[in-house]
UniProtKB/TrEMBL annotation:
The keyword Flavoprotein does not apply. GO terms for cellular component: endoplasmic reticulum; membrane. Its EC number is 3.2.1.-. PANTHER family: ENDOPLASMIC RETICULUM MANNOSYL-OLIGOSACCHARIDE 1,2-ALPHA-MANNOSIDASE, MANNOSYL-OLIGOSACCHARIDE ALPHA-1,2-MANNOSIDASE-RELATED. It comes from the Eukaryota. This is alpha-1,2-Mannosidase. One of its GO terms (biological process) is ERAD pathway. Its cofactor is Ca(2+). The chain crosses the membrane at residues 21-39. The keyword Hydrolase applies. Disulfide bonds join 352-410.
Length: 630
């Protein structure tokens, strides 16, 4: 008699009890899972994110050496395009093969690329670049002004770092750096000594309002401290130290211990309550830690302000998204209806430097030995409350979790896009859309902490103001600290189809506010530092994926171009190749892929344009002559 295959299988199971039990169990679990999916609201299911670490295949160093060569080839391609079509002007327009003078007209591409050429061993390009440096006059027509901040971090920083790492310590580099610094010096003719916005290096005329921007007034310490060391001139040390003294001794009662964006250049006091880890503030926060490291870990005042700043960012500006549990950092800005700063839930590509900075602090600082009394004002209720939120945690662990979680989000904003390249600015949702919404349970609980985003195409939501990461972290700890901390583990990318975009999809937890890709370096900077500090291959592999996308979507016959939108493939290019592509983007990629690092983190400090300076040890004679107080 014919027996159906299922019947024969059933008879076989009768004589194999272990296999039979396995089959029964699998059927039962599958049934329960399907039942759960049927009866559970969609929003709750989405919020049950499993936090895991998934490591890629470990590749031999020979593969990475070949990849480093690919990056070097990309640098040559772009720089030769600049030489052919744009020299001696500032930047190449890589589609029209014309040029633009948008940074003083002195050839900023050369100055920003000098040290990258040295690191990559591009001797011929470097020799030609040196000739350009030697011939430049740093002059400007009357009525025009060099932006001080940009000129310092790019031109001055580029020459000083090339001098520092060049085998022959080319005298022309230091001589021209000294010449430029002297021509810029009139910017300090304010009552406070904080710099004006700009100066005409030929006439000495200055430009700028009485209210300065934090990043522009407090991002010169590294360059001027090293310039003082290299030239032996006390006036440069004094310029840097005056800024350090002002920001370290200012009153931050209105901002909880963190430097605000606006500053009065007349009296050197904070002007507003706006705080940000991104635009208009980023490099000033960065230089707190890096000034401490540059001075061989002696400038304790800069260290203490860094600890206070990092604590405020971690406890007040880091949020976690409602369904994917992405960790992001945002800002507080005055709203249209209130002078008090409100949380914007805006997340910028510029802020993606922060995970790298936090990781650098984890690597270089004894964070678990920080004394509250040294870093904080015991009598300040906000500072005391922020420190209390971290009680019971290892400060080192929290900083590392923050670094890994933020870097994960920065990477996902690339991986979520069809081009594999990240947008310039996003707005994070603070709760799910009403249709199919559900906040979920566990450690994720909505907490009112500020307003949502302002983007016009945001879905209509029941806004709870978002969940502070520190609150989610404390809930996770109270629940037994099982698994990976919230916001830290790996997640899968969410790539929208064209139909998703037309219909309106919200699975990413954020909407794009500025969807262009500007060849920015910040995410790659953090991937590099996390790779060097943790040794986890995933960070290195992600940097390679980004480089592959750069090659596919941005390359032109003469260079690499920004994209108008990261959401369309093939990418639509715009006629722009920024100077930082040479200084930072390609440099960080190259440093990530090569084997032995030429810039050990305990011996070199990179400025905000990735220009490296050596750690400084003052001699007794220098300490006495400069009045070094640390």
């Amino acid at each position: 008699m014919y027996r159906h295959q299922i019947h024969r299988t059933w008879l076989a199971l009768r004589h194999r009890p272990q296999l039979r039990n396995w089959v029964y169990g699998s059927v039962l679990l599958s049934s329960l899972y399907l039942l759960y999916q049927f009866i559970t609201p969609a929003g709750v299911r989405q919020s049950s994110v499993v936090e895991v670490h998934v490591e890629p295949e470990i590749l031999p160093q020979s593969v990475w050496d070949n990849r480093a060569e690919r990056v070097k080839k990309a640098f040559r391609h772009a720089y030769h395009g600049w030489e052919q079509y744009a020299a001696p002007h500032d930047e190449l327009k890589p589609i029209s093969n014309t040029y633009i003078d948008n940074f003083n007209g002195w050839g900023v591409t050369v100055f920003d690329g000098l040290d990258t050429m040295i690191l990559m061993g591009l001797d011929h390009e470097y020799k030609r670049a040196l000739k350009h440096v030697e011939d430049i006059e740093f002059n400007m027509e009357e009525g025009r002004f060099a932006p001080y901040f940009e000129t310092v971090i790019r031109y001055l920083g580029g020459m000083l770092s090339a001098y520092a790492i060049s085998p022959n310590k080319e005298p022309i580099l230091l001589r021209k750096a000294d010449e430029l610094a002297r021509k810029l010096d009139p910017v300090f003719n304010t009552l406070s000594g904080l710099p004006y916005y700009g100066v005409n290096p030929q006439t000495g005329a200055t430009q700028g309002p009485d209210i300065g921007i934090l990043a522009e007034i407090a991002s010169l310490q590294l360059e001027y401290t090293y310039l003082a060391k290299a030239t032996g001139k006390k006036e440069y040390f004094d310029r840097a130290q005056n800024v350090i003294n002002i920001i370290n001794r200012a009153n931050y009662d209105e901002t909880g211990g963190m430097m605000p964006i606006g500053w009065n250049t007349t009296d050197g006091t904070p002007h507003d309550q706006s705080v940000s880890a991104g635009a208009q503030a980023d490099s000033a926060h960065e230089y707190l830690l890096k000034q401490y490291l540059l001075t061989a870990k002696r400038d304790q005042e800069s260290l203490q302000l860094y600890i206070r700043t990092a604590t405020h960012i971690i406890t007040e500006l880091m949020y976690i998204s409602p369904t994917r549990h992405l960790l992001y950092v945002t800002d507080k800005m005055p709203s249209r209806t209130s002078h008090d700063a409100q949380v914007s839930h805006r997340f910028e590509h510029l802020s993606c430097f922060l995970p790298g900075l936090l990781a650098l602090g984890v690597d270089q600082l004894p964070l678990d030995d920080v004394d509250f009394a040294d870093a904080f004002d015991r009598d300040h209720p906000t500072q005391r409350a922020e420190w209390e939120k971290l009680r019971g945690f290892s400060l080192r662990d929290v900083h590392l979790w923050a670094a890994e979680g933020l870097a994960q989000t920065c990477w996902l904003t690339y991986a979520d896009m069809p081009t594999g390249l990240g947008p310039d600015e996003m707005i994070f949702y603070t709760s799910m859309p009403e249709e199919g919404a559900g906040i979920g349970g566990g450690w994720f609980a909505p907490k009112t902490a500020g307003g949502g985003g302002t983007e016009s195409n945001r879905p209509k939501t029941q806004t709870f103001g978002g969940t502070l990461w520190i609150d989610a972290l404390r809930s996770w700890k109270r629940a037994g600290a099982r698994g990976v901390p919230p916001g830290v583990g790996d997640k899968a990318p969410v790539v929208y189809s064209q139909e998703d975009r037309v219909r309106g999809a919200y699975g990413r937890d954020y909407a794009l506010k500025k969807n262009e890709y500007l060849l920015r370096p910040e995410t790659l900077e953090s991937l590099y530092l996390l790779w060097k500090i943790t040794g986890e291959p995933r960070w290195r592999e992600r940097a390679w994926k980004i480089f592959e996308s750069i090659e596919i979507h941005t390359k032109t016959t003469s260079g690499y171009a920004s994209l108008r939108s990261v959401e369309s493939t093939p990418g639509v290019k715009q006629d722009d190749m920024p100077r930082y592509f040479f200084a930072e983007t390609l440099k960080y990629l190259y440093l990530t892929f090569i084997g032995d690092t030429p810039l050990p983190l305990d011996k070199w400090v990179l400025n905000t344009e990735a220009h490296p300076f050596p750690v400084i040890e003052w001699t007794p004679e220098e300490r006495a002559r400069f009045g070094v107080g640390y």
